[in-house]
Amino acid sequence: MTTVTTPVNVIRRDTPVGRTRVIGGIMIAMALFIMWVFAFGASSKATSIITFNPLNTSGGAPWTLGNLTVPSRLSDVVLALIALGTGIETIVRIPAKRVMARFGFVSVLFLLGLFVWTVRSGGPSPTNFIDLTDILVNASGITMVLIYGSMAGIMCERAGVVNIAIEGQFLGGAFVGAIVASATNSFVFATFAGAIVGALLGWVLAFFAIRYRSDQVIVGVVLVTMIGSLTNFLNLTFLTPYQQFNTGVTPNSIPIPLLDKIPIIGPLLFNQNMFFYLMYLLVGAMSFGLFKTKWGLRVRAVGEHPQAAASVGIRVKGVRYFNTILGGAIGGVGGVAFIALHGQFNPGFTSGLGYIALAALIFGRWRPAGAVVASIIFGLTSMLASGLQSFNVPVSSEILGMFPYIITIAVVSGLIGRVRAPAADGIPYKQD
Amino acid sequence: MLFMRLELRGITKRFGSFTANDAIDLVVEPGEIHCLLGENGAGKSTLMNVLFGLYNADGGEILINGESVHFATSGDAVRKGIGMVHQHFMLVPVFTVAENVILGFEPTKSFNRIDYATASDKIRKFSEEFGLEVDPDAIVEELPVGIQQRVEILKALSQEAELLILDEPTAVLTPQEIESLIKIMKDLAASGKSILFISHKLKEVKAVADKITVIRLGKVVGTGLPSDSEEELASKMVGRSVNLQVEKSPHNPGAPMLEVKDLVVRDERGVTVVNNISFTVNRGEVLAVAGVQGNGQSELVEAIAGLRAVESGTISINGVRVDNASPRECLDAGLAHIPEDRQRDGLVLSLSVADNLVLNTPRAPQFAGRGSRKLQAVRENAERLVKDFDIRTESVDAPVGSLSGGNQQKVIVARELSRNVDVLIAAQPTRGLDVGSIEYVHKQFIRERDSNKAVLLVSSELDEVFALADRIAVMFQGGITGIVSPDSTRESIGLLMAGITEQVNV
Question: Cα(B175)–Cα(B500) distance, rounded to whole angstroms?
Fold first, then answer.
């Protein structure tokens, strides 16, 4: 056979230089904020104490870290300089990858700077130390629920069905989970019950999205509203008179021997309830499944170009049904995990967490690992929104609560970073 | 399975009361390149979709090597050795070449993991065997269209296709890429693969076919050989004799009417898509802009028509500056615009034919009084134009969306030419039209030219460009690589379309 001599030249797309610059600019602005407000807002004599007290450790003396006393102003200056350096590096070098990771890093520096400034001696806070482990452990619960939610979304959206109903799957799963956990005192049963309810809601979404090719966003919103009202009603008519079905049980923490003794990481990752360990498995399985296996390739093909998938004999509708139902089940389990955190079911008590999970999966670019990072950032902010008041920080918690949504709008509109949804996400598939 | 003889017997496919395929018989021998020639809407694609298991036939049977087969899905067809290269590529843009090729037939390791090493080896093997050079790890959306098509062919071959269906494969290629494709097809046929090639372009069909089957209105109307003349084939395809030559008077340019100078235009993403272009269109001439789709032609036209912001440079019509003017100001300066996407930009499909015919003159005193429309005048105008331009519609009150593509285009042409203008710009004006309508539209353009108007024609069909142009400007990646006379060879224009300027003597 002869070779045809057409040049195999590759067209490179223009890299989003402008947007990278915008992100770099935002990072520099954050650095300057740390510098002027946090560093120079603290007196040069003030000190801040950071502690790492372990929590939840049961039995045996844990390995601990001592307290760290740092000069407030100097620490914040150092944090500001590191942030500034990262921002300048981003603007000058325009790195092709890990721009958002740099942004996340600077965000963490910003939070640290805020802590140091908040608890400085002579500051407004009634306590002059901040317990880092405590903060992280407090944020871990919400983060865990957000991760379940974003995995629920990724599962559906990678196959091309927009799952805006995560909030509804949370509420449905939480309601049933509370009843089953109270009745049986077993969160294993509750998990199965929550998964079934979530799967059922996923099936409803899939049924309208696939069979009737309805607008998936509308179906999703309707589902959330409907489940919200339904659980309100059932709560009034059933849980209020029969309180033995809403006792507020929570699962025990399961410490992993030895690992739970590691400072910070131990209490944070290895001394938690079963839903954390299930979450590790879920994230690992989804990362592996979506990006390494035959199943994942087919799912992503269905989400990107269903006609192409169909042309090689992949059953597009089957894949979409399967993934949407599975995604719903994951969302339902997320609801049970929320009960494990809260104990009792209360109407509407997820208060928009499902939408933050949606934001996290977009921020994480429809990738499990990315969604985990986004969930951690959003989980920390959610915790801060409620926690900062105890430090008398003059920032309204309601304003801070807007943070995930502002970030999401910035990301979706392409102001910072470039995200690309699966190309066929939300587009009904029509077999011709 | 080696070598395939495909036979279609009496294939019939109906959509409601409309019969798209009517008892079609067809035989493709092993190693044969069989062309299916027909106009848009003749039923070619329907037939291929039946053959590929995407539609169920209402009658008839498919035989492979004498054995009757039934395809419920395209997967069944693929398993029987039929591969299809779709007109709109069935490739996932964000996947690599390897991922696209193995999709649906993935080699796996333990835990269902995809075995990418095996996949890449397999692709390299096929690439070498059939001379289809391609990098398995390249991301498909970053490859030029011609290479993407190669990936499609490779995909079909790796699925062990013995019969390849190529559905209008040349629409998006440069002449050089077309030549390369023709060579690939001939090599494949020589190695025993059967090829079913669908096209309405006579030149290509003659260049590549061993046998030709012509279909019209869903029926086989004849067969032909590549030695038949273009006129013969065309008249079979259309059902009457056609004149492929457009007659026009000698080129006699007058004063400059449309002047574009140092024009720079960006797209929505901020990428420069028209890069420093200058040209002039004079009275009494057709300047054709040739080039492969997506090299900035659409944005150039939109900028001239006032539909897209101009970054820098100037546009003037009849001496009036219209860069960054509103569409209304452009029209007032004497511009008529036949847009590329007629259904999106040219018509309001749910409005009547009569209303669509006055869309460009909403404030003209003959159609609009003080606060109310003169419906009688609108209707009379429509009846006159429908007659003059031979628009086939049941009434002027019918929604324009109910007309055929050719007649929709005639509505736009009639509307734009009914105003007295100086400059006509038309983007892909005959895309998707039947030969009869193409003839008609071409005649109208020449009539405008001969009545001393300036015409700017943007077309990716080289035949059209050669038929109409007095001068040809070739666009490549936003720039003009050359302005040449229509006596230039196809090859030299092809090189300009690929951005190669050295070898061409302008």
Answer: 13
Smallest CA–CA distance, residue A380 to chain B, in Å, is 33
pLDDT band at B462 (very low <50, low <70, confident <90, very high): confident
> Predicted ipTM?
0.83
- Amino acid of residue A64: T
**Three-state secondary structure call for residue B239:** coil
Q: For chain B, which residues make up each domain, given as ranges? A: 6-238, 245-334+421-506, 351-419
Q: How confident is the model at residue A17 (pLDDT cuts 50, 70, 90)?
A: low
Return d(Cα B322, Cα B422) in angstroms, integer: 14
Please check whether the two domains, B6-238 and B245-334+421-506, share a CATH topology.
yes
| Both structure tokens of B328 | 């209304």
What is the reported pTM? 0.81
pLDDT > 70: what percent of chain B? Answer: 98
Residue A225, pLDDT above cutoff 70 = yes
pLDDT in tens, A376-396: 888 888 777 767 766 766 677
A4 contacts B132? CB cut-off 8 A: yes
CA distance B29 to B15: 30
- Exposure on the CB side of residue A93, measured as CA atoms within 13 A: 12
Cβ within 8 Å, pair B103-A298: yes
Residue A245 burial (C-beta neighbours within 10 Å; 0-12, 13-18, 19+)? middle
Q: Structural domain boundaries of chain A?
A: 17-123, 138-372
* CATH 1.20.140.10 fits domain B6-238: no
Is B271 at the interface with chain A, CB within 8 A?
A: yes
Query: B16-37 pLDDT, tens per residue?
Result: 888 889 999 999 999 999 999 9
pLDDT of residue A53: 74
Secondary structure in 3-state letters for B172-192: CCCHHHHHHHHHHHHHHHHCC
A10 → chain B, closest CA residue: B143
Q: Compute how many other C-beta atoms are within 10 angstroms of the C-beta atom of residue A243.
A: 11
Angle at A356 between CA A352 and CA A357, to 5 degrees: 115
Judge whether residue B404 has pLDDT over 70. Answer: yes
Top CATH class, B245-334+421-506: alpha beta
Q: Is B188 in the A-facing interface, judged by CB distances under 8 Å?
A: no
Closest by Cα among B96, B74, B187 to B141:
B96
